[in-house]
Structures are given as C-alpha cells and as structure tokens.
Design brief:
This protein has ten helices and twelve strands. It has 372 residues and is α+β, with helices and mostly antiparallel strands. Strands 5-6-4-7 form a four-stranded antiparallel β-sheet, sandwiched between helices. Strand 9, helix 8 and strand 10 form a beta-alpha-beta unit. The N and C termini lie far apart (86 Å). The C terminus is likely disordered.
C-alpha cells in the first residue's frame, strides 16, 4: 500500500511538472536559426511583443558574384499592421541589404563590365565569329527627366457615368503626354546607337523601343564584347526564352467582390500581352484590336487569359466583364518580340492595363536554349 501511494505521489508530481512546463514551452519557443533571430531583432528594435510578430516571405538568397548568403523577409506586426523588412546572415547578424546589393553591383561591374553574368558565361563558351541576339539598355546623360503630373490635390470620387468617362479620358491624356515626354528624350539616344550598330559594328537592329532606352540587336560575339565597353551602355542582357504562365479564376482572385461594389471594368482598356493572339471568334469575348490580326500563332492560353479578364459567360464570368480587350501579340516569345508587343499596347494603343501571364524559362531548359 505504501509503495502504491509513493508511486501515485510520483505520478502526480510528474504530471504537475509537465503541466507547468508545457505552457512555458508554448509561450517561449526555441530561440535558434536565422528566422527566429530575425524576429528577435525586430521585436527588440520596435519594442514589440514577439507573439504578435509574423515572419513572411523569409528565405535564403545567395548573391551571384560575391557569393554572400543572406536570409531576407518581412516581419508583420499584428498590433498595428506595420511591416518591417529584415535581412540577416547565416549567424543571425543583421545586415544592410542596400549596402550588400551595392557591393554586389560593384563586384559584378568589376568582373563582367556591363554584361549580365549569364551572357558573360555564354560569350566565353561560344566561338567568337558566331552571332547572338542581345538587349542593350543605354545610359541617358543626366538621366531620364520624369514627367510632372499637374497637381490637383484631393478629388471627389467620380460617381456618375459621365464623371467616370471624363476621368478616364483625362487619365489617358496624361498617359499619352507622359509617353510623348519619354519618347522625346529616348529617340535621339536610340537613333544614334542604332547607327553605331549598323555602320560601326556591322550588326542588325532587331527592335528599338520608342519609350525606353532599350535596343535589341544581333551582333557577333566579338562585337558584343566591344559594345560592352562603351560608356553609353548600361547593361547588355542575354536572350531570354519565355513561356505561358496561367492565371487564376475570378473567385480565387475575389473578383466577385468588385461586382458587389459596382465595379465592372467598363471603359477600361486591358491588353493581353502574349506571343499568341486572342481568338476573338469566341462567343463570350467582346472583339477588340489585335496587333497582328492574321498571325497564325493563336492558342488557348491568350484566349483563356482574356476570358479570365472579361468573359461574358453567364456563369463563368471574367473579373471585369465591362473591360475592353486588346490582343498585344508578339508572335514569338523572344525578348525583342515581347518588347514590341508591350510598346504597342502602352505607347501606340495607350491602354490602361497590360496583363503579362508569361515569363522566362527556368532551369536546365533555359541553359540549353541559351547554348543554342
């Protein structure tokens, strides 16, 4: 009996200790690893309750040239909704992200000049007499002078259809003025550079943007190296190969809430930027302009994306059923073709929104395409 009582007392004491320690452990999580150390730093800096802090988008990043490994993310403080960016090294020491990026850029310039690292590696592996298509971002002396929008102060919300139409027209006029302002600064820079490409380096100009200091050219490997040493060249980009990236449906984007608030997209111009064109014969799409109307490159992706934006179907509605659709088809997913398509939408058609549900091919497939 006595032994039994002793055992019961021991079990009771153990249960009490466990009951005491489990809540303590729950309240005080283990302080280890870059993520927890980043939270500790923000909590101390803001004098915030650690239990009200949440780390979002935190991950490991390694800078290409310097090789620095950094853990970076944002800390959300649920007490006031504020967001604090934080960067730490693998030991959990806080680092200055801006300074690291500046050091990375200096190291890249020292090693590669104006070439991107992937282009520099490609040039090293390619015979000097072969040609390559590259994008060239030029320096503008003194920098681009920004467009100054007229100061209007606080404006009342446009409530009537007439007010909304007038506001849209006013915004389109401002965008057109901003586009013309950019073009006036870019045109002489690009024109002089194009002349150097064709007459000085014997190359071919594939495309020259009307609103950005960006020119796509085809040059020999030797000419690209010569080009990269020019003072007016900021960056020379390797060719990128892109692919479709599918978008989400209306409910997953909470687009139906806009319907409840009376927003239908009426009068808003949306360009679907793809390699292929929208199939406007689809009965649930309102017909709009197409950059290359007779292009044989027409597939389900551009049409499906247009449907997600503005499908007129009674059940599977688009997010903005009243929007005007534009098919900004590049015909091909090479960088120059897609730049042409985007410029057509922005500078020529002066649309309100451009949808880009495509991106660069990643991984080994991109590397093999680059070698080709």
């Amino acid at each position: 009996m006595r032994k039994e009582n002793i055992c019961k007392a021991g079990v009771f004491c153990a249960a009490m200790l466990i009951g005491i320690w489990i809540p303590l452990l729950a309240q005080e999580p283990a302080r280890s690893g870059p993520a927890q150390l980043a939270l500790d730093h923000v909590a101390a800096e803001r004098m915030a309750d650690p239990l009200l802090l949440e780390l979002a988008g935190f991950g490991r990043r390694q800078l290409t040239v310097t090789g620095k490994v950094i853990y970076r993310g944002n800390v959300l403080d649920h007490s006031d909704g504020s967001v604090t960016p934080v960067s730490v090294d693998p030991a959990g020491r806080v680092v200055n992200w801006v300074e690291l990026i500046a050091a990375e850029k200096r190291a890249r310039a020292d090693k590669f000049g104006s070439l991107t690292p992937d282009l520099a590696r490609h040039l090293d592996q390619t015979p000097i007499n072969q040609t390559v298509d590259v994008g060239v971002w030029l320096r503008v002396p003194g920098g681009i002078v920004p467009f100054e929008r007229p100061a209007k102060g606080s404006q009342p919300r446009a409530r009537t259809r007439e007010d909304k139409t007038a506001r849209q027209a006013e915004n389109r006029a401002l965008r057109r003025a901003a586009s013309d302002h950019l073009a006036s600064q870019v045109r002489p820079i690009n024109t002089a550079f194009e002349l150097h490409i064709t007459e000085g380096l014997g190359g071919e100009v594939l495309y020259s943007s009307p609103v950005a200091p960006l020119v796509y050219v085809r040059l020999s490997i030797a000419a690209v190296r010569t080009l990269s040493e020019r003072d007016d060249v900021d960056t020379v980009y390797a060719p990128h190969f892109n692919q479709d990236l599918m978008s989400s449906a209306k409910t997953s984007q909470k687009g139906h809430l806009g319907d409840q608030w009376g927003f239908s997209g009426t009068g808003v111009d949306v360009a679907i930027v793809e390699d292929s064109r929208i199939e406007f014969s689809n009965p649930y799409l309102n017909v709009g302009p197409t950059r290359i109307p007779l292009s044989p490159n027409v597939d389900i992706h551009a049409t499906a994306t247009a449907g997600i934006v503005a499908s007129q179907h009674a059940v599977e509605q688009g997010i903005s059923v009243g929007a005007n659709l534009y098919s900004a088809n590049g015909t091909s997913y090479d960088s120059a073709s897609m730049a042409i398509a985007m410029d057509w939408a922005a500078a020529t058609q002066n649309v309100d929104i451009m949808n880009n549900s495509w991106g660069s091919v990643a991984g080994t497939d991109r590397k093999s395409r680059l070698k080709e």
